[in-house]
Design goal:
The chain is α+β, with helices and mostly antiparallel strands. Helix 6 (222-245) packs antiparallel against helix 7 and helix 6 packs across helix 12. It is built from 14 helices and nine strands. Helices cover 54% and strands 18% of the residues. Strand 4 (72-78) and strand 5 (83-89) form a beta hairpin.
């Protein structure tokens, strides 16, 4: 069974020569009080990647390492800043990577097989940085590295590098203090983000070759801003995949939102990217968001029902309400999880990832992509806004009821599209896009929560019917239903004000 840890470290290129007197000066980095010897370790690692180095290009790595205190399979995935997530699996007699780790890199490797690419042998001299009480703040490793490329026409390389890895109790500010001391004594940051990247850069030219065969537009053009937004979303979708597979908190929600943002952007900026290419991708993104929706929608529904039940006094909970709710939760959660994992295992999903990679590598740019951003982006943004205005005005003119609920939900979808279009345009348009996006987000929040109450009412009614059929009291279910109905009506009353503020903001900019 794989285990996950978070590591925060920085790498440095050590100065030439054998003088390591600068180590004693590290006590100037508060709160480091002393250093202790940690011994010498002999480490042997084989790194796996695709033939075109898809893991390394996305700052991930997968290795089989022996020696040291943590022998095993190590998958490292990037996190913000100096941190990475390390997922470890035990060694086995098999030379191939464990299936559970292979699945976690599928969003990066897509359909390409993994193979050994680099063999590293390192002699590690370890030192512990201690505080005044003798507790370990960080580990400092001096690694003498020998690398052999396992790729065709690969070579060999040798170098020495320094790693400083924080212990669990130390904050990231300690790294800044240590780096300041190291810099003063001629020890500077390593340019490569990892040993495998350093080894590949030294032994092969593969990393120097670009996979971007398309024509990129000039910085500052409309196409530039759209592509920066799209590239960021594609990277985010890739990064969320392993967390979704492992059931990490909020991962499904964030991946689903990313798919929706990407789909909305490709629709809004059809004047920049050719829809003959992007429309099939949009259909697959809609499918993916829908499959993830079963698990995510249940998360929201469970939270609302559980919260509502928690607000009821004990004397108003009649019958086996909690037991029925738990049974419903287990069944629905399992079905949602099944759909999520089935979607991520499907050929359609891998094809989507491949097509997104092609889209960003060789974007299907239209003529307006080279135009100045203000005209192109504003026109697309206002077009989406006018669609929202038509839907919202229609919804607010309708009497309360199921038809109005459906109309509000339709307007909410249009609000999301405006918000995402504004996000893409914000770096180019500045405050106007930011303000409009903020106002429309408020509309989306109110209308979205109102829709949640509608869905919750439907679920509560189904549970009440099932309880009645089993001869159980329906009183508590009726109370929960009434709470949701009241919450929904209150949100309906709030919606016109949120929409008026969004409309006033849009009118300042020509809507």
């Amino acid at each position: 069974m794989a285990q996950s840890t978070r590591e925060t470290e920085r790498k440095y290129a050590t100065p030439e020569g054998d003088d390591i007197g600068w180590l004693s000066h590290l006590t100037a980095a508060d709160p480091v009080a002393s250093l202790s010897e940690g011994g010498v370790q002999e480490l042997d690692a084989v790194y796996y990647d695709t033939a075109d180095l898809r893991l390394t290009r996305t700052k991930a790595s997968l290795r089989r390492r022996t020696g040291g205190t943590d022998a095993g399979w190590h998958l490292k995935l990037p996190l913000p800043g100096d941190s990475r997530e390390e997922i470890q699996a035990p060694l086995s007699s098999e030379a191939a990577p464990p299936d559970e780790l292979v699945e976690l890199v599928l969003s990066r490797t897509r359909k390409a097989p993994l193979r050994p690419v680099i063999h590293l042998r390192s002699t590690r001299s370890l030192r512990h940085l201690l505080d005044a009480e003798g507790a370990v703040l960080a580990d400092l490793s001096m690694d003498a590295v020998w690398a052999e490329s396992l790729l065709e026409d690969g070579g060999h390389a040798r170098w020495t590098e320094l790693e400083v890895e924080l212990a669990n109790r130390a904050g990231p500010e300690l790294l800044d203090g240590i780096e300041e001391v190291l810099h003063e004594h001629g020890v500077d940051r390593e340019q490569s983000p990892s040993k495998v990247a350093h080894a590949l850069a030294e032994t092969t030219s593969l990393l120097e070759r670009t996979v971007d065969a398309g024509v990129r537009v000039a910085p500052g053009s409309a196409g530039h801003y759209v592509l920066v937004y799209v590239d960021g979303l594609v990277d985010a979708l890739t990064d969320f995949d392993p967390a979704v597979r492992r059931g990490m908190p909020d991962a499904v929600h964030r991946m689903r939102t990313t798919a929706r943002r990407l789909r909305g952007c490709l629709r809004s900026y059809r004047s920049v990217l050719d829809r003959e290419v992007t429309d099939p991708i949009r259909r697959d993104l809609k499918w993916l968001a829908g499959e993830l929706g079963a698990e995510r929608d249940h998360e929201v529904l469970r939270e609302r029902v559980t919260s509502g039940l928690g607000e009821l006094p004990g004397e108003l909970i009649l019958g086996p309400v909690t037991a029925r709710l738990q049974a419903w939760d287990v069944g629905e959660r399992a079905e949602g999880r099944r759909r999520t994992l089935a979607a991520l295992a499907s050929p359609r999903y891998l094809d989507l990832l491949e097509n997104l990679k092609i889209l960003t590598a060789a974007p299907p740019l239209r003529a307006k992509a080279a135009s100045k951003p203000k005209k192109v982006l504003v026109k697309a943004l206002l077009k989406d806004y006018r669609r929202l205005a038509r839907r919202m005005d229609r919804a607010l003119d309708m009497p309360s009821g199921s038809d109005r609920d459906a109309a509000i939900h339709s307007a909410r979808k249009a609000a999301k599209r405006v918000r995402y279009a504004a996000e893409a345009a914000r770096p180019a348009l500045g405050k106007p896009a930011r303000r409009l996006g903020k106002r429309v987000k408020a509309v989306q929040r109110v209308s979205g929560t109102q829709h949640d109450t509608v869905v919750t009412c439907h679920a509560l009614r189904r549970m009440a019917v099932a309880a009645q059929a089993a001869g159980e009291p329906g009183f508590s279910w009726g109370l929960l239903y009434g709470q949701e109905r009241a919450a929904g009506r209150a949100l309906e009353q709030e919606l016109p004000g949120a929409w008026a503020r969004a409309r006033a903001t849009a009118r300042r900019y020509g809507a």
